[in-house]
Amino acid sequence: MGDQLSSKQYTAIEVFVHTLTWIFVFISPLFFHPDSSTFGTADHIHSLIFPTMSCLIFYINYLYLVPKFYLSHKQQAFILANLLVIIGFMLMADYVRSIFPRHNEGIHPSPSAIFWIFIKVRNFLSLSFIAALAVFISLSKEVRKSEVARKQLEVDHKEAELRNLRNQINPHFLLNTLNNIYALTGFNVDKAQEAILELSKMLRYMLYENDAPEVPLSKEIDFLQNYIALMRIRLPEHVKVDTEFEQPTGYTITVAPLIFISLVENAFKHGVSSTKDCFIKIHLSATPNEVIFRCENSNFPKHDNDKSPGGIGLHQVKNRLELTYAGRYVWEHGTKDEDKVYFSNIVITKLQ
Fold first, then answer.
1. How deeply is 286 buried, as exposed, middle or buried, from its count of CB atoms within 10 A (0-12, 13-18, 19+)?
2. 306: phi then psi, degrees, rounded to nearest 5
């Protein structure tokens, strides 16, 4: 997804942040000591004990204990393992301190028992906080992975719905077109052959050129023009068909394939009368920022008992627009002039 960090980018950022954090943790004792110039080897070792324990406990949890126990809902085993690890490291730290005494350790009096207990409790709580931090960061990563997986699932579901809608368009389109060609064979073989030629052009587009999420607007216009030419072949003279297609020059505009064909089909289905004067007007144009489609036709709605194949349905056109251009389109449609004219106007914004 374009607006999300890639997995490699996220990993690189994670490594960078971890590295900077631990560099700071390991060098910070030098900055906070009143006179680091007097540090001897033992002093340096003592200053590194707690940062080293913190780092080891963090990554033991982050890389092993959290995935193995905590994320597997074995919280009791996770807590017990951390208690053993933390206490073990604290005992090991005491041993290291005992074999590397500070150079001024004999000058100062030994700490009282209460102070010693306070130091041990403080260190235990601090290391427990480090383990809890590993849990928190691991859970954050899991949430992020789940969110990425959810968004990918949404994308896959959206693509499946679009494929399903396109698959509904294609058989319906072929059925209507073949019915028209079949009707022509009964009274005009030459026109039927011309119609088959136009159909072959459209089938080539439908089979080989419309699998991409978007296609050049010029190809979609060619497809609509071929369809309209096919419909004109059997139209009576009293049906007036006006088309206006403005193909942009100097830049490329893309649209979802077959996005307008259902409305054009419905115009020929509901806008043509065998006896009355009627019209169909189709306009398609584009600017660098938007695509504009307008269709108007005489309105002769089919009777309820008409069993002829119907259009894909306005609700499915709505679904297609919503899946492809959610938040980026305006669709106005309905009847006017006392229900004598049906109109459908779509404006798709190309730039968000």
1. buried
2. -75, 120
